[in-house]
Amino acid sequence: MRVLVIGSGAREHALLLALQRDPQVTGLAIAPGNAGTARIAEQHAVDVTSSAEVVALARAVRADLVVIGPEVPLVLGVADAVRAAGIVCFGPSRDAARIEGSKAFAKDVMAAAGVRTATSEIVDSPAHLDAALDRFGPPAGDAAWVVKDDRLAAGKGVVVTPDRDVARAHAAGLLETGHPVLLESYLDGPEVSLFCVVDGKTVVPLLPAQDFKRVGVGDAGPNTGGMGAYAPLPWLPDDVYRDVVGTIVEPVAAEMVARGSSFSGLLYVGLAITAKGPAVVEFNCRFGDPETQAVLALLESPLGQLLYAAGTGALADFGELRWRDGAAVTVVLAAENYPGRPRVGDVITGSEADGVLHAGTARRDDGAIVSSGGRVLSVVGIGDDLSAARARAYDIIGSIRLPGSHFRSDIALLAAQGKIRV
Ligand code: GLY
Known about the structure:
By secondary structure, the protein is α+β, with helices and mostly antiparallel strands. Helices cover 29% and strands 26% of the residues. Glycine binds at residues 155, 211, 226, 284, 288-289, 291.
């Protein structure tokens, strides 16, 4: 099986590495990729938001399966075009990708499927902002205002704050540029990212993971695309996880079928485990980054065959997934100033070691690997438990040099210390 992966992040690097371990995968191509993925797959420079270019490439590399990583091509309907060309695709249709692309659509599906989620309100005019903020606050205890950009914003469009002025400023800034704002009630409790492979009807959950969205140690500072992750979650009881599949994911998949927007691909369920039980924070229509780097490091089942089964509606026959024992931790190395405008073009050393996945990297004409984006690398440590996996990840990151770069030193720390309780 020849597989074409679309995307350029460490998530796509992790997908390639897991696909490479599948004995039925005989060829790998990626577009546009990065300096790390170029070492393990044929690399092609195409505009991944152009259906015509992706289909032409899939034909040129004789792909049996196309795996679309990022949300933007999915929301634009690139998966529909690949399927229309007669090529198996892992990724939802444009209609189904609205579960991520339109927060209003996601809320509607959840209401119809009877799924617990935050209450929310769209504000589309500055004149209505203050009254809406009052309806969602002032928050009590540890609670906070949750203000979201109603568009795709690579994880950076959300502000969660107990400070009304900060919440108001974020919302007013978005409204000034003509973008509606979503206000949500605050869901307390630890967050879980549960990735489910779905072929329309059948749901196959992967190991649950947790990511770290804020830039600084102790969850300080602004939100990012994700600064680290770990899997599995020793603090999450198995029955909660099974219950989420039965009471949230399967009803949502069934509701999508009922609406004629059947979801085939990776349904990412972002949950908060609140005092009243699990509640949905968000759905995404693709693998999460950086959780994928940790989750796929532990997968023993053949990923190419799994994604092909999803793309052909054959998941019911796939059987149980197999996982290696132990834990995986991924830590993101970010460029100076990220999540603001990152400094780029600096030479990186130590990035070719095992366990280093590339994201914002490029190879210069002289052969040097240089930074080219905000999240530059993801390092992945695997170990018998979370402490061992953390130690390995921080060992690897300690051997990498990138001027001005930063990373969080507390990824998976509380979980390794047994300090997360539900
Ligand atoms: N880790 C957050 C995301 O992928 O959206």
